[in-house]
């Protein structure tokens, strides 16, 4: 093994396969950026860079939650509905109080609670994450409709808009700041804490994790709670951007979040993921959307491209996994 | 024996997997209408030979003759077509099929493109009557008892015109009445001229039902005997005599007070188990696979539920619900199934070793990664884990090094009781003796060690005391003195494993 | 046996949904359209003399959905009339089904209504082509159909239509931009989901006016699928791409217009004229504050009420005028107070 590795071409002191596994997707992003810089002069402008970052902020925050869930061997399809629920809760909250913080905290608490329910159902009764979240998704969306009686409402608090569209010092958008803060927290959680290690272990080999004394129930459940918290934060940005409490938003957001994770090297088999990789996955999706808009390609093609990219990423993942076994 | 007609003859069969020679020049002679027992320790080569016969493996050398003609099967289905069926120990019937569908699976009656269920059911009913089997052909497999499901398998084999039926531990999950029914069926089959290869560890059964026996040891053929006139002692002495291929460096060390004690443990696969282990002592558990050794240890460690029984650690009664509690109390277990219960193969050596030890490495909320790295380096050096870096993923390591990683993680946890289930399985000779040396070292540090091994010389060589299991119960205890002074030979231990008092 | 169970389930579920629908209606009806209900009630009694039977009738309503703001206005307008008619003994029972903007749901619900034995059905189609089979199913069972708000591709076969002409809405949008910005400029167009009747017709209306103006150029036309967040992304990218060339963003609905306008404000491009259709509460609030130039208001309340009147009359076996077209109105800062109160 070791001898064979030495014979391979070395890139930056790593053999080629290790290098490609670690940074291959980063190279894809660079190629896409290089291509767009040539194809569209607008792409290079600072204003457009800010636009991209702003546009990915919602999906980014969701992907940073989803990466925990997938790495622990689960999946969460209910986040689209949770976004809508967040929007409705924020609208309702502003009817009673002007406090932005109250609205945000309320959303976080409610979404974390639904995350807990998802996780507990899955971890306690060993139900399939796909089935559980597919069902709770309906429950959560329904509750959103019930709370707002099905109606879209303008947000009573105007300052709230600033979160999604405002800029710190007229320069750095708040939504990007939020994304960065969540990314740093996610990085610390996944790479520097016991919780993160347990996520990797549970997703990598649940039996081995149990036999090593890991509390699997709590690890799996908390991964969904973290997903809920991230969804609430994403929902806050999204709601502020559309300036309305709307119970029908958020459809399809889980797909984008899952796509960002998978493109960023998160393995569906569980146990493999990094936060920097996920961030790159998020950026790639952002560049696809923005780039195709700039090239005036129909939005339907964007969807097709994203789907193909996910298939490619999953195949790459399977290829790497196969090599392992 | 010239002139005798054999229905199935295997000659000079050899089969190697990688570097391991599983079968060496093995033979088997089976007469029509004969019940022929296969006897041997775990890993003696019985199942490998059977898999060669039904076409799951292709032998490297040797020839098989069936009904006087050269024979080879491309797989179980082909073997069935040619007249050889195997009833596996663990049946996996399709639960949603009916008896009729199960018996006629893959050879359904059709009318044009459609199934002719009526005809199939009719045919099934006739066959069932023949076997005195009182269930409707439409009964679902999931509604049958294990014995009934097994009978359906046998009926299926017979209805395929099987002339040789291989039965692997057919009575392991039957009660005495069901066993009696099975034996009646076997005698009926004999009368019809069907030959049966009967694999079992139960001596009494072999003496009751079989006509002849072939004994295997370490992948070699020892010999055949007619059941008439052969004694149990003779058979057991044929089975043992495995070469001692490594020296066991057991160092005697000071044995302290009782550290861990269990009483009346009962659970799935074992009942009423009591023993105690002292500090600095290695307690060996021997027994055949499935005799309840691993099951007991899994239950102690909290992986499986205990039905009843009490446990004490350092004189205090303890209750263990899950491995989390076992680890917290200072009990560690190296599982026999390394891939499933030992390692997260796609994570690094560092993460695997520190997984049960993370609470000790926390600095507030965060992990102290520098200290973690340092300590993992230390322990993996101490246990001589060979890898380029502790960041290497576990799957890239050899079996022996993987096992050392598993050991490292538990050594780092500094347990009071260390349970080792087949610690040297799938490990090369060098790593094996290193693991043995380490065991002595840990015992010298005052750990209580419980070791399970299916290799008699290993478990006899390493243990201060040996507890022998037979069918879920303990069947005697052997001390180191008895082993050393030659009172307890391999024959004695094996006889106990086979249920001799 | 299985079939019987399936039918039982379908009926039970339908009744359940109907119960939910009418419960919701109790709380909302008074505020949404008291006026409309009153006037239409007078209409009813006058029509009752024209022949047909006075036996109480059953009415089914295949609502497009019970969640979008605008659909709720239409639903509310009609439900108020239905409730009144039930109180007056004209209607024996009515069923409100939520189609969830899905044509196949509407098709299966149509079968449920046939089983329930209704005398007439109102439908707001989820899609122009996709919902067309509903009309055939109901006709096969001899049940007259009234379309409300938008049309199916076989709308000619229907017994009644109560709608506004979405082409007109598109024309009003385009004319507003012309009036505001003069004879030259460049614009982009945000569409709803492709294939949706309203989107198709509004697009047609916009092009009717804009294509005649040689001074105006369309830079891009994309579908944001009625969604605000998608519209926001398009607006941002267009502002980056076209810069000062971009003068106006025409949107097929207000959810998109509101989000696009917010993106313009954030980018410091308050000069870009943004307008949409529906006059939702969110849009009107911004119009009142001077943040949005205007919106085109569709009179959903009257559409709903008129459709119900037609359906009741048809159920009683009376003749009705087939088509009623309810006009759109342009809402700007000048007249917003008529439709929106803070």
Automatic annotation (TrEMBL), chain A:
GO molecular function: transmembrane transporter activity
Keywords from the named record: Cell membrane, Membrane, Transmembrane, Transmembrane helix
InterPro entries: ABC_transp_permease (IPR001851)
Subcellular location as annotated: Cell membrane
Chain ranges passing through the membrane: 63-88, 100-121, 127-147, 168-190, 224-245, 257-288, 300-320
GO CC, one annotated term: plasma membrane
Lineage top rank: taxon: Bacteria
Membrane topology: Multi-pass membrane protein
Protein name (Swiss-Prot/TrEMBL): ABC transporter permease
Source organism: Fusibacillus kribbianus
TrEMBL record, chain B:
GO molecular function, a single term: ATP binding
Entry keyword set: ATP-binding, Cell membrane, Membrane, Nucleotide-binding, Repeat, Sugar transport, Translocase, Transport
Domain ABC transporter, residue spans: 8-243, 253-496
Topology versus the membrane: Peripheral membrane protein
Superkingdom in the source lineage: Bacteria
GO cellular component, one term: plasma membrane
InterPro entries linked: AAA+_ATPase, ABC_carbohydrate_import_ATPase, ABC_transporter-like_ATP-bd, ABC_transporter-like_CS, P-loop_NTPase
Keyword Disulfide bond found: no
PROSITE patterns for this protein: ABC_TRANSPORTER_1 (PS00211), ABC_TRANSPORTER_2 (PS50893)
Subcellular location(s) of the protein: Cell membrane
Protein name: Sugar ABC transporter ATP-binding protein
Organism lineage string: Bacteria, Bacillati, Bacillota, Clostridia, Lachnospirales
UniProtKB/TrEMBL annotation, chain C:
Signal peptide: 1-18
Residues of the Periplasmic binding protein domain: 59-319
Record GO terms (molecular function): carbohydrate binding
Nucleotide-binding is among the record's keywords: no
Keywords linked to the UniProt accession: Signal
Domain of life: Bacteria
One cellular component term from this protein's GO annotations in UniProt: cell envelope
Matching InterPro entries: Peripla_BP_I, SBP_2_dom
Record's keyword annotation contains Secreted: no
Subcellular location: Cell envelope
Pfam families tied to this protein: Peripla_BP_4
Compositionally biased intervals (Basic and acidic residues): 22-57
Span list, region Disordered: 20-58
Family: Belongs to the bacterial solute-binding protein 2 family.
Protein name: Substrate-binding domain-containing protein
Naturally occurring in which organism (per UniProt): Fusibacillus kribbianus
């Amino acid at each position: 093994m070791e001898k064979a590795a030495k014979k391979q071409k070395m890139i930056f002191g790593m053999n080629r396969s290790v290098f490609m596994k670690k940074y291959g997707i980063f190279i894809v992003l660079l190629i896409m950026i290089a291509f767009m810089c040539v194809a569209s002069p607008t792409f290079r402008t600072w204003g457009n860079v800010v636009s991209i970052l702003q546009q990915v902020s919602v999906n980014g925050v969701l992907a940073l939650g989803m990466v925990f869930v997938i790495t622990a061997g689960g999946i969460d399809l209910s986040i689209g509905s949770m976004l809508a629920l967040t929007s409705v809760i924020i609208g309702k909250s502003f009817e009673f109080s002007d406090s932005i913080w109250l609205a945000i905290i309320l959303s976080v608490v409610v979404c974390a609670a639904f995350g807990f329910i998802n996780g507990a159902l899955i971890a306690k009764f060993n139900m399939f994450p796909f089935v559980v979240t597919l069902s709770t998704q309906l429950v959560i969306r329904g509750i959103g409709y019930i709370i707002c009686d099905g109606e879209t409402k303008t947000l009573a608090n105007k300052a709230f808009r600033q979160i999604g569209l405002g800029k710190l010092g007229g320069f750095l958008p708040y939504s990007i700041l939020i994304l960065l803060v969540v990314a740093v927290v996610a990085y610390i959680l996944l790479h520097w804490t016991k919780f993160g290690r347990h996520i990797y272990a549970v997703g990598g080999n649940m039996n081995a994790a149990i036999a090593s004394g890991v509390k699997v129930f709590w690890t799996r459940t908390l991964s969904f709670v973290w997903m809920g918290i991230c969804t609430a934060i994403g929902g806050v940005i999204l709601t502020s951007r559309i300036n309305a409490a709307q119970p029908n938003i958020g459809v399809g957001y889980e797909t984008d979040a899952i796509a960002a994770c998978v493109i960023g090297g998160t393995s569906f088999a569980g146990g493999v993921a990094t936060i920097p990789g996920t961030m790159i996955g998020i950026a790639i999706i952002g560049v696809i959307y923005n780039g195709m808009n700039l090239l005036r390609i129909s939005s339907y093609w964007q969807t097709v491209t994203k789907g193909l990219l996910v298939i490619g990423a999953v195949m790459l993942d399977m290829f790497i996994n196969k090599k392992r076994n | 024996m010239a002139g005798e007609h054999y229905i199935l003859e295997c000659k000079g069969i050899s089969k190697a997997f990688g570097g391991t020679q599983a079968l060496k020049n093995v033979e088997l002679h089976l007469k029509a209408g004969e019940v022929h027992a296969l006897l041997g320790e775990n890993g003696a080569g019985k199942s490998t030979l059977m898999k060669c016969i039904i076409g799951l493996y292709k032998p490297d050398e040797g020839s098989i003759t069936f009904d006087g003609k050269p024979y080879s099967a491309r797989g179980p289905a082909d073997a069935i077509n040619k007249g050889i069926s195997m009833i596996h120990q663990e049946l996996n019937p399709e639960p949603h099929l009916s008896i009729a569908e199960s018996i006629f699976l893959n050879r359904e009656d059709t009318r044009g493109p459609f199934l002719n269920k009526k005809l199939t059911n009719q045919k099934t009913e006739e066959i069932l009557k023949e076997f005195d089997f009182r269930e409707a052909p439409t009964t679902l497999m999931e509604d049958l008892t294990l014995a009934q499901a097994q009978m359906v398998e046998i009926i299926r084999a017979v209805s395929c015109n099987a002339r040789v039926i291989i039965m692997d531990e057919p009575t392991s999950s039957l009660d005495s009445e069901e066993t009696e029914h099975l034996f009646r069926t076997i005698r009926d089959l004999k009368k019809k001229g069907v030959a049966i290869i009967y694999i079992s560890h139960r001596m009494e059964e072999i003496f009751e039902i079989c006509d002849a026996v072939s004994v295997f040891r370490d992948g070699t053929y020892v010999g055949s005997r007619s059941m008439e006139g052969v004694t149990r002692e003779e058979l057991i002495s044929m089975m043992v005599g495995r070469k001692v291929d490594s020296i066991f460096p057991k160092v005697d060390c000071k044995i302290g007070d009782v550290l861990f004690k269990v009483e009346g443990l009962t659970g799935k696969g074992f009942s009423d188990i009591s023993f105690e282990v002292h500090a600095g002592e290695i307690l060996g558990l021997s027994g055949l696979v499935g005799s309840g050794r691993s099951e007991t240890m899994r239950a102690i460690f909290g992986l499986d539920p205990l039905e009843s029984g009490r446990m004490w650690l350092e004189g205090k009664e303890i209750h263990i619900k899950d491995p989390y509690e076992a680890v917290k109390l200072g009990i560690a277990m190296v599982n026999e199934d390394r891939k499933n219960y030992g390692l997260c193969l796609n994570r690094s050596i560092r993460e695997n070793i520190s997984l049960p030890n993370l609470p000790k490495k926390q600095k507030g909320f965060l992990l102290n990664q520098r200290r973690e790295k340092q300590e993992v380096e230390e322990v993996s050096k101490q246990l001589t884990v060979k890898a380029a870096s502790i960041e290497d993923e576990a799957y890239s390591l050899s079996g022996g090094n993987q096992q050392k990683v598993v050991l490292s993680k538990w050594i780092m946890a500094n347990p009071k009781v260390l349970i080792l289930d087949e610690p040297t399985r799938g490990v090369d000779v060098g790593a094996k003796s290193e693991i043995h040396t380490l065991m002595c070292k840990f015992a010298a540090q005052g750990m209580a060690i419980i070791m399970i091994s299916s290799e008699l010389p290993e478990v006899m060589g390493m243990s201060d005391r040996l507890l022998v299991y037979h069918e879920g119960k303990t069947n005697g205890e052997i001390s180191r003195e008895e082993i050393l002074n030659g009172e307890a030979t391999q024959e004695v231990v094996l006889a106990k494993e086979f249920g001799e008092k | 046996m299985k079939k019987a169970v399936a039918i039982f389930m379908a009926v039970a579920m339908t009744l359940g949904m109907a119960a939910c629908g009418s419960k919701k209606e109790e709380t909302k009806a008074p505020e949404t359209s008291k006026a409309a209900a009153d006037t239409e009630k007078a209409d009813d009694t006058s029509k009752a003399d024209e022949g047909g039977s006075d036996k109480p009738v059953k009415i089914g309503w295949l609502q497009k959905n019970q969640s979008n703001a605008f659909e709720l206005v239409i639903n509310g307008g009609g439900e108020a009339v239905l409730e009144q008619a039930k109180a007056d003994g004209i209607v024996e029972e009515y069923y409100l089904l939520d189609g969830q903007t899905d044509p196949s749901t509407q098709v299966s619900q149509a079968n449920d209504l046939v089983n329930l034995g209704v005398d007439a059905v109102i439908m707001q189609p989820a899609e122009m082509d996709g919902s067309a089979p509903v009309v055939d199913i109901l006709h096969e069972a001899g049940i007259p159909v009234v379309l409300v708000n938008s049309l199916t591709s076989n709308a000619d076969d229907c017994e009644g239509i109560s709608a506004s002409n979405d082409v007109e809405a598109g024309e009003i949008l385009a004319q507003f931009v012309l009036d505001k910005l003069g004879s030259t400029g460049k614009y982009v167009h945000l569409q709803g989901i492709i294939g949706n009747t309203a989107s198709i017709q509004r697009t047609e209306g916009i092009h009717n006016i804009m294509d005649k103006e040689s001074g105006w150029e369309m830079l891009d036309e994309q579908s944001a699928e009625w969604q605000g967040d998608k519209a926001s992304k398009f607006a941002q990218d267009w502002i980056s791409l076209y810069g000062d060339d971009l003068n106006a963003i025409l949107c097929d609905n207000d959810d998109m217009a509101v989000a696009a306008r917010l993106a313009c404000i954030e980018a410091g491009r308050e000069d870009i004229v943004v307008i949409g259709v529906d006059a939702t509460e969110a849009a009107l609030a911004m119009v009142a504050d001077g943040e949005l130039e205007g919106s085109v208001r569709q009179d959903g309340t009257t559409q709903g009420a008129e459709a119900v009147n037609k359906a009741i009359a048809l159920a009683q076996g009376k003749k009705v005028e087939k088509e009623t077209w309810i006009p759109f109105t342009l809402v700007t800062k000048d007249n917003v107070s008529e439709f929106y109160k803070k």
